[in-house]
Amino acid sequence: MTRSAARWCAATPYNINLAAMDVQIFGVKKSADTRKAQRFFAERRVNVHFVDLQEKAASRGELMRFVQKFGVKALIDESAKRFSELGLRTALYGDERWLAILIEEPMLLKMPLVRRGNALTIGAAEDTWKSWLAA
């Protein structure tokens, strides 16, 4: 380790190797919370793998991770414009049907979906992200 790198590591508020930490962010570029998550991790020099849901939808397996932890209802953004456009306000679907809809219509997801290993968050969760950095 060079002297300047050693000085930076000593000055950083988190005593871990941030270069080894990777996070995956699912969202869209026009979402303020998604940009906030990207900025949060970029400022802390954490490797970010961004998946733009408008270009590539999240896979069923990836969404299942979030469903298993939070439940399918927690992933649905009922305030989304697309939710109203599709007339889903009165929909009474089961979890499997909602999951299929979320795969087909990623704009219905609460954003961002952030994953670090097995740790997951939905929406802007800075306190949780900070705990990831402190661990």
- Number of helical segments? 7
CATH class: Alpha Beta
Domain count = 1
The CATH topology is given as: Glutaredoxin
Task: Name the CATH homologous superfamily.
Answer: Glutaredoxin
State the secondary-structure class.
alpha+beta
Q: What topology, given as strand order, has the largest sheet?
A: 2-1-3-4
Summarize this entry quickly:
The chain is of the alpha+beta class and about 140 residues long.
Give the helix/strand layout:
Layout: H1 3-11, E1 22-27, H2 32-43, E2 47-52, H3 60-70, H4 72-75, H5 81-85, H6 95-104, E3 113-116, E4 119-122, H7 126-134
Parallel strand pairs: 1-2
Antiparallel strand pairs: 1-3, 3-4
Description:
With 135 residues, the chain is of the alpha+beta class. The chain has a single domain, classed as Glutaredoxin (3-Layer(aba) Sandwich), CATH 3.40.30. It has helices at residues 3-11, 32-43, 60-70, 72-75, 81-85, 95-104, 126-134, and strands spanning 22-27, 47-52, 113-116, 119-122. The longest helix has 12 residues, at 32-43. It is globular and about 45 Å long.
Can you give keywords for this protein?
single chain; 135 residues; alpha+beta; Glutaredoxin; 4-stranded mixed sheet; 4 strands; 15% strand
